[in-house]
Design goal:
Radius of gyration: 18 Å
Distance between the termini: 39 Å
Order of helices and strands: HHHHHHHHHHHHHH
Helix content: 55-70%
Strand content: under 5%
Number of helices: 14
Number of domains: 2
Number of strands: 0
Largest sheet: none
Structural class: mainly alpha
């Protein structure tokens, strides 16, 4: 990470170097299991700063290096490497704000922390998430969902000039694996809220990588959902009430993870 690049630049430069090796770049898949990668697959291979690879993918999509662009007829590995270089050279804090919203620094730090979750933390997070949902009850959870949806929609209208937001939203992929979660339903319903999606997806993917095969079981799925919900809450932190924000971020905060530096300590939150 440099003064002008808010994410670890090595993720992009090393991905570009990998793609530039003979017969490495492919189309139609992230990874064919035999040492061949598309642009996004090459980025996922980089672990210089765990978590940053997932955020870089959102930035890549904003910069036009989408999976569809990679797979276009007549595309070449040289063109992919050139696009990598352009994105690496031009990505700034303003780009991060366009993609992830005004709380992008907190979202970046959260994604990095989630990427480093230990198996024990994943278990605790899953338990905390299920307890939060049970304690809130159906009516309270529906209210939380509605508040997040309204806030996301308001943010979208206020940022109508940010063309990258709807573009990033269209890149939705991992969301389908956690669609049953109320917090995700709120973001998904706020059509055009690409910042909400981008933050959710990066946090979710980082948690998935940390969870490994455990992500396929019920506990792993709950942990992934909790990470995504906290990222979504960060995007609309200043737009939803404290109760709703605490509901979405409480599970992570309960196991000692900082979601936003200005958040009250968890003990104060639950005693309020």
């Amino acid at each position: 990470m440099t003064a002008t690049t808010p994410l670890d630049i090595n993720v992009i430069t090393q991905a570009a170097a990998l793609i530039s090796e003979p017969d490495v770049w492919i189309q139609g898949a992230n990874d064919d299991g035999h040492g061949h990668y598309c642009a996004h697959g090459a980025v996922l291979r980089q672990h210089c700063t765990p978590g940053d690879q997932h955020m870089w993918r959102q930035i890549m999509r904003r910069g036009g290096l989408t999976e569809e662009w990679n797979d276009a007829t007549d595309r070449t590995a040289e063109e992919v490497a050139e696009r990598f270089a352009l994105i690496a050279a031009e990505t700034t804090a303003a780009d991060m704000a366009d993609v992830f919203g005004p709380q992008w620094e907190a979202i970046r730090d959260l994604v990095r922390r989630v990427a480093a979750l230990t198996p024990a933390e994943l278990d605790k997070l899953a338990t905390a998430w299920e307890a939060t949902r049970a304690a809130a009850g159906a009516a309270a959870w529906e209210a939380t969902e509605a508040a997040a949806r309204e806030a996301a929609w308001a943010a979208t209208r206020a940022s109508a000039g940010a063309a990258a937001w709807p573009a990033a939203w269209e890149a939705a992929g991992a969301a389908a694996r956690a669609a049953y979660v109320a917090a995700w339903a709120a973001a998904r319903a706020a059509t055009g809220d690409a910042a909400g999606y981008a933050a959710w997806d990066a946090a979710w993917a980082a948690a998935w990588a940390a969870a490994g095969y455990a992500a396929g079981d019920a506990a792993g799925a709950a942990a992934l959902t909790a990470a995504g919900a906290a990222a979504l809450a960060l995007v609309v932190r200043d737009l939803i009430g404290e109760q709703f924000y605490d509901t979405l971020t409480g599970p992570l905060r309960s196991i000692g993870i900082t979601v936003h530096p200005a958040d009250a300590p968890y003990a104060e939150m639950v005693s309020a």
